[in-house]
């Protein structure tokens, strides 16, 4: 049980709902406080240092990140995302970690300083869940230690990858190796020397009558012969260096058969195990981005230099209402994410897929509105590098597509909900039958309700 005294009037816990505070254990309270202090004192003040160092070398991780990663590891705020049912976990639940992740989201790269960034969180959880002890030694532990970074390679340019059964990069499995040919999009850039492995999903058994058993997941070292990066893909004009988003060609790329994860034909089992946590981690961090945009809007509201028609921006009724809408939207976003995290803890990732999809659909869309309102309050400056708002907005828009577009998640939710329709129809019929019985009892003539059974 959490200590109410330790959280009273503490900014690290100011936005956490009471029902969540009641579930926080002492270890979580300690980590949330540490992460809050870390982001506020180490990350936000260093944003412009990061930009300056990145400008000097676009595809090398800035030196300040390396320094902060060493300090964060020494302080024990490292790999916090891995849930406590893994032996490699630092001990937090998904719900407890979500409180940390929100704070990390206040700075785009803050999570990286704690080894809690995408795609590392999803990849590490995948490797921890599905790899053999030998595979963990080769790939999981170096990633957890921060010795290298990784990419998840699923999307393709020639098919509708939102229907992952269409993924077609060819994998020929022999008795000793896997030979790969095809194209991929979005895996992190080879330009950054720290990116050393791809977790690749491809088609190894195209004639299998079960479309869900045609694909295999394996690890491809980034420097493997025949693997070529064509270019970096800009996302709405940003190159997102130093990680980026590469476009790749695989030409007779050969990797040992030992690099297959879990076994041939089991890629969909792995993908579902990975994408749930990956999606929710994005949403957790987006709450922090929303809070940052909201705070910037408040700062603008009371800027004494900005007085159109002699009034502070925050004195106009339209902006007072704008602030109210932003505040309530963010609080609603948080409840959706926290519910998903708690559901995952209590019922597992599979049972929590509705709550995860709900977060993935609703949160990025709501964040876009919050940031857009903040931009409006900043006027022309809100569209420039004078604030982090344009990059926050672009990242939120990207997340609407990352790990699957909105429409794919809505379709899944809708299909699941349609399965409940027969039970509701049966209930409606029971209402009608009972109504007719009551009409007879009270001597009334039953009416027909068109469209209602």
TrEMBL record:
Residues in Acyl-CoA dehydrogenase/oxidase N-terminal domain copies: 33-147
Keywords, in A-Z order: FAD, Flavoprotein, Oxidoreductase
Needed cofactors: FAD
InterPro entries named among the record's database cross-references: Acyl-CoA_dehydrogenase (IPR050741), Acyl-CoA_Oxase/DH_mid-dom_sf (IPR046373), AcylCo_DH-like_C (IPR036250), AcylCo_DH/oxidase_C (IPR009075), AcylCoA_DH/ox_N (IPR013786), AcylCoA_DH/ox_N_sf (IPR037069), AcylCoA_DH/oxidase_NM_dom_sf (IPR009100)
Annotated TM spans: none
Official protein name in the record: Acyl-CoA dehydrogenase family member 11
Pfam families to which the protein is assigned, alphabetical: Acyl-CoA_dh_1, Acyl-CoA_dh_N
Entry's family note: Belongs to the acyl-CoA dehydrogenase family.
GO cellular component: cytoplasm
Positions in coiled-coil regions: none
Domain (Acyl-CoA dehydrogenase/oxidase C-terminal) ranges: 268-415
PANTHER family: ACYL-COA DEHYDROGENASE_OXIDASE C-TERMINAL DOMAIN-CONTAINING PROTEIN, MEDIUM-CHAIN SPECIFIC ACYL-COA DEHYDROGENASE, MITOCHONDRIAL-RELATED
GO molecular function: acyl-CoA dehydrogenase activity; flavin adenine dinucleotide binding
Annotated GO biological process: fatty acid beta-oxidation using acyl-CoA dehydrogenase
UniProt superkingdom: Eukaryota
Signal sequence region: none
Highest classification ranks of the organism: Eukaryota, Fungi, Dikarya, Ascomycota, Pezizomycotina
